[in-house]
Write a structure and sequence with these properties.
The chain is built from 14 helices and 10 strands. By secondary structure, it is of the alpha/beta class.
Length: 363
């Protein structure tokens, strides 16, 4: 268990994580409609920083208004967001945690009632999303980079690029969703070009020790494991990012593609030559024992999601190897006491079996 509490530095510098626990970027729908930070969002995140997380990451923050993925999403696309982001970054750092903003664009997954016309790498009849022009792709790269520059100005230690879960960058990576015939479509290298250009753009326009992470997922949404492995290895070899965050849905699972079965999905990524880049994994890490096992199996750090919702101080509680999170379901009052605002509690109520129905809560 001691490895979970060893510090972790990053290749490009900046503050080290005091332990190997990173707060996963979690959708919570509790910021203001214009993307401005709310007091509820502030409380949720700072309470996790105070609870001992080595790095506290925001929920996905959209880099364009048309990229909004859910109601009450935190924004990073305009200077109207600066005051709230500055307040948040300062409070996370004051609590002794490294601060990171996750940069996001939902693409075809943007709800029409929020954005009007969703956009995508190519026209998508299933969602009604419109394919981006070449100029719009170039602007999308610029807006990701601008959000990173804005985050640096706000005082964050770094940013993470959200390239997972079928959102717009994962849509570019998908051979099913990306049918472009320009330099952003076709080969694996071309489909990953937008991610590499964002990485290059951020590195060129922020200070040298500003930390840069990338989140990828290797399955679903038309993604191919072999292609994600190839893309991840190329980015690791470049060495321009500080950490790669692999969202695996379940760190214990095997790949869904038959030709890769027989070993864990995670093992394919721990086997990559990562150089100085740190590798983290996410997916049902619900106990200190599982977290420690992931480090023993080759990860550098772990991302905590559901367990962090249940316990703001999950890292500190993990000093006891026997600790296990409170069993589900929990009451709305329990979650409110753990720093979730009403909108977040309502959102968690849509997760089967997570929140007790009001009539089952004991008086």
């Amino acid at each position: 268990m001691a490895d979970l509490f060893s510090p972790m530095s990053f290749a490009h510098g900046g503050p080290a994580m005091k332990n190997r626990f990173m707060l996963a970027p979690l959708t919570n729908s509790q910021s203001h409609p214009d993307g401005v930070l709310s007091d509820d969002e502030f409380r949720w995140l700072t309470k996790r920083a105070e609870g001992g997380f080595g790095l506290t990451m925001t929920c996905a923050a959209h880099v364009q208004a048309v990229g909004q993925g859910f109601p009450g999403q935190l924004g990073g696309f305009g200077d109207q967001h600066l005051a709230g982001l500055t307040r948040l970054a300062a409070a996370i750092k004051a609590a002794g945690s490294v601060s990171a903003l996750q940069m996001h664009h939902a693409g075809a997954r943007s709800p029409k009632d929020l954005v009007g016309q969703p956009v995508c790498p190519s026209d998508d009849p299933e969602t009604g999303a419109r394919g981006l022009s070449l100029g719009e792709v170039e602007q999308l790269v610029e807006d990701f980079v601008a959000a990173a520059v804005r985050s640096e100005k706000a005082g964050f230690d770094g940013v993470e690029i959200h390239g997972a879960h079928g959102y717009i960058l994962a849509q570019f990576l998908s051979p099913e969703l990306n049918r472009r015939e320009d330099r952003y479509g076709g080969s694996v290298e071309n489909r990953a070009r937008i991610v590499r250009e964002i990485i290059d753009g951020v590195r060129a326009r922020v200070r040298p020790d500003f930390q840069l992470g990338l989140r990828l997922s290797p399955e679903r949404f038309g993604l191919k494991l072999a292609e994600i492995l190839e893309t991840a290895q190329a980015i690791l070899t470049d060495g321009k990012i500080d950490y790669l965050d692999m969202s695996l849905w379940d760190v214990m699972k095997e790949p869904v593609e038959a030709e890769f079965q027989g070993r864990s999905l995670m093992s394919y990524f721990t086997a990559l030559d990562r150089g100085q880049v740190r590798l983290g994994v996410a997916g049902k890490i619900t106990s200190p024992a599982i977290a420690a096992d992931m480090l023993a199996k080759g990860a550098d750090y772990v991302l905590i999601g559901r367990a962090a919702i249940l316990h703001h101080d999950f890292p500190e509680r993990s000093r006891d190897p026997a600790f296990t999170p409170t069993p589900l379901p929990v009451s709305a009052a329990y979650l409110e006491n753990e720093g979730l605002g009403p909108a977040f509690v309502k959102y968690m109520s849509t997760w089967p079996g997570f929140v007790q129905a009001p009539e089952t809560v004991e008086a």
